[in-house]
Amino acid sequence: MNHLIGPDTDLNTVKGPFDFCPVNIEIRLFQDGQRSSYVITSINGQSLGTEHLQGIRSPIVRINFPDGAIRHAAKIPDNATHFCWLNSVDIAQSDIAKNASKNEMAMLLHGGLAYFNQDGSHTYNLIQINRFRLIETGCLWLKGPKPWRSEYTQSLRSEGRLASVQHTHLWDKGVRYVAFLNSSEEFMNANDTNPPYIATEYWAFLYLFNDDTTPNERDCFYEVSPVPFGEQPTE
């Protein structure tokens, strides 16, 4: 199977197939005003001790897709009720992180998804962390590009969810920031009388092209959609 290349020859994004695989990383969650964050406490069972690895995460939301296909394709644990996206972290000051195995390193450098089970006391108990990977047997594809409504960029920025681009390919194409969009995430501005803006029913990766995050006509996002193994998505 050939990897499908997006129709936008300028961005030229590899669109799949992908899947997720579990990594051996433990975290603690924090909330600081509008910003949701996390701290890595261990990698491959090795405690980080005094080494400090902290990153931004998306808000924790309930797993509520329009169908069960993406749950199977993304290898979401059966007992998971909620999830959040974990942005990448700076591993420069961590000897433990710099010596992590392949899958754990990929999550640290490029981000991943954390799954939780919410108990009766409304506590989120971590079940599993998965990292995104390009693989021939995957059943997930990126569909797009789709135009982004730039009036909602500020809400992502205020939450600290815009991550500086780490991929050389994306940087060379002009992308400066990436953000993960939650499934059915609603965006509204103050005093907005319009219905909430929902970019995707599933997940999506947002790409912004200006250094200062001001609007650019090339700003766009790609939806993560489930497609049966051996097939390719239709746009």
UniProtKB/TrEMBL annotation:
Name of the protein this chain belongs to: Uncharacterized protein
Organism annotation: Adineta steineri
